[in-house]
Design a protein that fits this description.
This protein has 2 domains: about 1-100, Translation factors (Elongation Factor Tu (Ef-tu), domain 3), CATH 2.40.30; about 110-270, Rossmann fold (3-Layer(aba) Sandwich). It is built from 10 helices and 17 strands. It has helices at about 1-10, 35-40, 80-85, 125-135, 155-160, 180-190, 200-210, 245-250, 260-270, 270-285, and strands at about 15-25, 30-35, 45-50, 60, 65, 70-75, 95, 95-100, 110-120, 140-145, 165-170, 175, 195-200, 215-220, 235-240, 245, 255. The strands form 4 sheets. Strands 12-11-10-9-13-14-17 form a 7-stranded mixed β-sheet, with helices on both faces. The protein has a 5-stranded antiparallel β-sheet with strand order 5-6-2-1-7. Helix 5 (about 155-160) links the parallel strand 10 and strand 11 (about 165-170). Helix 6 (about 180-190) packs parallel to helix 7 and helix 7 (about 200-210) packs antiparallel against helix 9. The longest helix has 13 residues, at about 270-285. The two termini are about 20 Å apart. Mean pLDDT is about 90; it is low at about 5-15.
Length: about 300
């Protein structure tokens, strides 16, 4: 109730209503947010930035799907804002939704394309796979997670892709191993013209190393720290081909063979202590009514 009332009281004229909210797996959540201006223009590979309320931080989330006037985002609770966002329910209001942002995926007719999603990165796979399929490509999907209970969107990917491979680190579902193992096997037995990788930075680094010897054009969707999403703050800078790029306006997709993944991972760890402190303070301000957030301060 708070999330609706506070937006009304602050005079928000454009309300971003949560149409659907559900938990997909442990700590992984799906929200469909009514944001017509984003849904109308969103393309595969782009993202949005949302702010829950006037005292909230801005966070980027990849656009996972579009349906009517709503867009889908899927996220894992890793910090204060995602923990708070996970508490949102159908009918709740989000203060600001800006987008679509970033450069769209390079969708074209290439032949055979492979879309690889790891962990919560699977969220970005369906919209890219669908775009490539509609462009006339044969689409191979490879999705992987640590265990079967953390796999998401399997049915959706199976419906879109011509072939779908499932991997789990512990062997509890599909192939015992990593998406990179399956990709290497498929590259040895057939021609693949384009590869997209979305997932943890280390997973993308390893997988890009698999395609490099084959000379297959490979895209990685990067997830550095981001603030404004317009290229002004510079916090999302990454090194690509020895040059500094801003993931928000030059990406988020880049040639995976040119990305400095070690630098990306180092920058992702810069604010770990502050993020931990923010999450602890958020937990301390939990209301007796069961809701938590900066409004409790």
């Amino acid at each position: 109730m708070y999330k609706t009332l506070i937006s009304m009281e602050q005079g928000v004229t454009r309300l971003y209503r949560v149409d659907v909210a559900r938990e997909l797996a442990d700590r992984i959540y799906e929200l469909w947010i009514r944001a017509p201006h984003v849904a109308r223009h969103a393309r595969a590979g782009q993202f949005l930035i949302l702010r829950l309320h006037d005292r909230g931080e801005r966070i980027p989330l990849t656009i996972s799907a579009v349906g009517g006037d709503a867009v889908r985002v899927i996220f894992m609770t890793v910090g204060k804002t995602t923990q708070e966002l996970a508490s949102y329910r159908e009918g709740d209001i989000i203060r600001d939704v800006a987008g679509p942002m970033g450069r769209p995926s390079e969708i074209g007719r290439y032949g055979t394309c492979c879309i690889i999603g790891g962990g919560v990165g699977i969220a970005s796979a369906p919209i890219i796979a669908r775009g490539l399929k509609e462009a006339g490509n044969r689409v191979i999907g490879i999705i992987g997670a640590r265990s079967a209970d953390l796999l998401i969107l399997e049915d959706e990917m199976r419906e879109i892709c011509d072939e779908l491979f499932i991997t789990t680190d512990d062997g509890s579902r599909g192939i015992h191993g990593f998406p990179s193992d399956v990709l290497k096997r498929e590259l040895e037995r057939r021609r693949i013209d384009r590869v997209w990788i979305i997932g943890p930075a280390m997973m993308m680094k390893v997988t890009a190393g698999v395609t490099r010897p084959y000379g297959v054009k490979t895209f990685a969707s990067l997830n550095p720290i981001m603030v404004d999403g317009t290229g002004m703050c510079g916090s999302c800078r990454v090194t690509v081909g020895g040059e500094t790029k801003f993931a928000c306006v030059d990406g988020p997709e880049f040639d995976a063979h040119l990305v400095d993944f070690d630098g990306l991972m180092q920058r992702q760890r810069i604010y770990l202590d502050q993020e931990k402190m923010a999450l602890e303070r958020y937990a301390e301000r939990t209301c007796r009514c069961g809701e938590a957030g900066d409004h409790c301060a």
